[in-house]
Amino acid sequence: MDDDALLRYSRQIMLPELGFEGQQRLCDSRALIIGLGGLGSPVALYLGAAGVGRLTLVDDDRVDLSNLQRQVVHDNDRIGMPKVESAAQRLRQINPDCRVDTIPRRLDETAMAEQVEQADVVLDCSDNFATRFLVNRLCHATRTPLVSGAAIRWEGQLAVFRYDSGDACYRCLYDEDGEEDMRCSENGVAAPLVGVIGSLQALEAFKILGGAGEPLRNQLLVVDILHPQWRTLKLRPGPNCPVCGKA
């Protein structure tokens, strides 16, 4: 790192759990962010600002006026622009040292597998079970850490999957069809909620890449911001799970 980088990341380097070595690990790492909406916005902003060296952004949607209430990486001038391009422009303004790759389309299994294999961590910020199940299966196959988030109405969830022996995976939580897909466009969402969950996703990825602290492993964090309540549920591997089970 040069002098400008040392100054930029000085407040993180001061953390004894991270230090210079941890910051260098961040700068040398690559994160794959799937979805640049409400969750993907804070994920991309914080990881880019924190110094993750390379971000790969995947989203096939374009910026819409209805997005701007919560998708803070975009702005009014970028309505109609592909979300990945909008996010990339913002990230380059925040940290020009961060390399940003954009994929403005939905990836099939082969293409997604290629991206997962190249990543040091995957952040699932999508809004449908088909994508979540696919990403989980591919991350399990490559043992790539997965940080999964979800948010709807006033409630959010967060889990981290490392795929070590005895660990649960995302597929252990849901049947083949998953629960009925719930989208913000149909059910609504409180704007700060996606900021909370997305920021926590970024934090977990930050710890994994920087080698600091302990990830939220084999636990599901459930957040209700309306009342408010924070609960942590223990996750156990499903013996009949088609991804990680022994059956």
List keywords for this structure.
247 residues, 36% helix
Task: Give an overview in words.
Helix 4 (40-50) packs parallel to helix 5, helix 4 packs parallel to helix 9 and helix 6 crosses helix 7. Helix content is 36%, strand content 18%. It is globular and about 50 Å long. It has an 8-stranded mixed beta sheet with strand order 3-2-1-4-5-6-7-8, with helices on both faces. It has helices spanning 3-8, 10-13, 19-27, 40-50, 83-94, 109-118, 129-142, 184-187, 191-210; strands at 30-34, 54-58, 99-103, 121-124, 146-152, 155-161, 219-224, 229-234. It starts with a helix and ends in a 13-residue tail after the last strand. It has 9 helices and 8 strands. 42% of the residues are buried. With 247 residues, the protein is α/β, with parallel strands linked by helices.
How do the strands of the widest beta sheet line up side by side?
Answer: 3-2-1-4-5-6-7-8
Uncertain runs = none
Radius of gyration: 17 Å
| Strand content bin | 15-25%
What is the count of DSSP helices, taking H or I runs of 4+ residues? 9
Strand tally is 8
Measured as a percent range, the helix fraction is 25-40%
Structural class call reads alpha/beta
H/E element order: HHHEHEHEHEHEEHHEE
Largest sheet: 8 strands, mixed
Question: What is the terminal-to-terminal distance?
Answer: 48 Å
Please tell me what the overall shape is. Answer: globular
Average pLDDT figure = 93
